Amino acid sequence: MPDPNDIREWLAMNYPKHLSILDKFEVELKLGRLSIESTAQQQGMLGSLDRLGLATRTIELLKILIGSTRWKNAAELLLLLRGIGRELHAVGGSREPAIGNIVRRIMAAVREEAMNTDTATSQHSTNRPSMQSILWANPQPTRSSKSSVNSHFDDRDLPPIFYTERPEFKQTIMEAIQEIILDLEDTHKNINEQALSYIHADEVILTYGKSRTIERFLMAAFAKKRNFQVVVCEGAPNMGGHKMAKSLSEAGIDTIVVNDSATFAVMARVNKVLLPAHAVLANGGLITSSGCNMVALAANNMSIPVVCIVGMFKLCPMYPHEGQDTLQDMVSPSSVISLNELGNPLMKAVKFLNPVHDYIAPELVNLYVTNVGAFQPSYIYRLLAENYHSDDWESFE
User: Fold this and answer.
1) N or C: which end of the chain has fewer CB within 10 A?
2) Residue 129 carries which DSSP code?
3) Are 80 and 65 within 8 A, CB to CB?
4) Three-class SS state of 270
């Protein structure tokens, strides 16, 4: 099996068709096509982000690469997945944490299926970090790091059962992958079923920018005869809030659009704030659209609850060591200021920053509503332990 850093060379030698599939996926990832709604691509216009679609495309890619390549046991499959994860992370997956989360979840399924045949399951459970170690230590695997390329994966780390060849193991893994695909397909359905529990009659709901998840959540509540009003912050400079408000108003929901600068002024008459998510971090913090931190701070000042609507595939085993720069991406300031204005001599000393995301501290988020239930930020550590293995947290760095 290949070294995790040589996955492309291994595929080129043994599976050139699979390498071409991987290359096509990486090109679309670099161009941002995987995270844009397909209908918008067909019409040649900018669409809203569709990271559920991105996660689905990722697992479909992994299903092809796993199902039609030759590997003998769980240890070799983990090496293959690690190599694919590092390759995708290097070409742009670091900006889309959902990709790495899907790979980690499949790796956790591989470990679980391998250990299901072993009687020493209780010994395997010691690999899970305790609550105290997560809260007080930096994110790290349970064993000390090594200088080799397999710094977080070493042959000595795995029980002997991982090297046992089982003819039915591939079929078992493919079934586990299919279960994950079904979970992804039911994400919005399971979230929307909880809408009436969090949206009450005659409430004023504030949200920010454009989010398909929140849009469907609100429409699900409205479809069940729940009357409420929505205040949408426009989400400058992309102005996604205008598209969001148009979609909600066309569905019959009472909707108002306000400037971002008016957020604090209108917060006093708001009952609840709903925010989208780019990623949910290990400490319970939230990575979301730029501008949402301002909304969360205003809500906290007014003691207004902040609820994040998010699928479990966005749960990311990463800590915000870089603060507001965590998972951050800077884009051109052209959407903020024109090139003609930049030509002004007074502008030469001005530095323009146009961040894509905001980091919101867990103290500012009251609840995460997911497709498997609602949880407080302090419970995120447990969800991480249930979905990913601690040895895979930093697999792709």
Assistant:
1) C
2) P
3) yes
4) coil
